[in-house]
Structure formats: C-alpha cells, structure tokens
Specification:
By secondary structure, the chain is of the alpha+beta class. The protein has five helices and five strands.
Length: 154
C-alpha cells in the first residue's frame, strides 16, 4: 500500500492506494502511520490528489478514479447508490434504501454509509436524516456541513 497526504480546506486528507486504485481516504485525525508513503509513481494517488484539488477549487462535480474499496456485497451496493447522488443534492437513508430495492434496510444503509472508506469521492456526506438534519459522518458534522455548503446543498 502507498499513501499520500494532501492539503484541503477541511484539513489534510490521507489517500491510500494499492498502486493502481484508491482504497481509502482518511480524514484529519484518522491517519494511520502504518502505510508507507508512495514510492515512485502511483497513478491512483496522483489522480486522486488532482481530482480532490479540482473538487475543492469548485472545478469538479464528479470523480473519475480507479476505486477498490473492500466491503460486503450489500455495502458495495449502497456505495454505488451514493455515487449516483448528484453534486449539490442530498438524499435520506430511506431514499437510498428504496433506491437499492431494500426499503426496510434503512439502518443497514446507515451502517454501510458509515463504513464508506472513500468519503467525498463516494459522497456519503450527501446522505442526511429523513427530516433533512445532518447525521453522523466519519469526518464529523462540521466537515459534513462544510462539504454540503461548498456544494450548495445547504
């Protein structure tokens, strides 16, 4: 595994790659020292850093990166549904459950959302409570609010 830490308006983000695809994006305070820094050229880290910089500069609304997040089949299904939420919009956990054809799995959707290893790129920050309230987020509610405000969703 390779890592690269990039500066962003929400603090330093640590990108983790297997050399060909992004595996994780870690928020400030969640960086792990175990993964070595990138050695040589890592196209996944380079592309991730560039596209995140474009996103934070307001020039990117959709990511086109090689991703290889590990997760259960259900988690993968939820994460694909998150990628379908347009920039500047939000969906509720119930909306996601209905979208994947599992309308009774609202809590399971919430759990899968919380285990998303690629926040921002797989936009779990765009999921809110049914009443529109901001709910749990791995990076903290202040960062979730900042991302949604930046996107014009709040």
């Amino acid at each position: 595994m390779n890592t690269l830490t990039v500066d962003s308006p929400i603090g330093p983000l640590q990108l983790v790659s297997n050399g060909t695809a992004l595996l994780e994006i870690r928020f400030p305070g969640m960086h792990r020292g175990a993964a070595p820094p990138a050695t040589g050229e890592d196209p996944a880290l380079s592309a991730g850093a560039r596209q995140l910089a474009e996103y934070f500069a307001g020039r990117r609304r959709h990511f086109d990166l090689p991703l290889a997040a590990g997760g259960t089949a259900f988690q993968q299904q939820v994460w694909r549904a998150l990628e379908a939420i347009p920039f500047g919009e939000t969906r509720s956990y119930r909306d996601i459950a209905v979208h994947i054809g599992r309308e009774r799995a609202v809590r399971a959707v919430g759990a899968a959302n919380g285990r998303n290893p690629l926040p921002i790129v797989v936009p779990c920050h765009r999921v809110v409570g049914s009443d529109g309230t901001l709910t749990g987020f791995a990076g903290g509610l202040a960062i979730k609010r900042q991302l949604l405000t930046m996107e014009g969703a709040l």
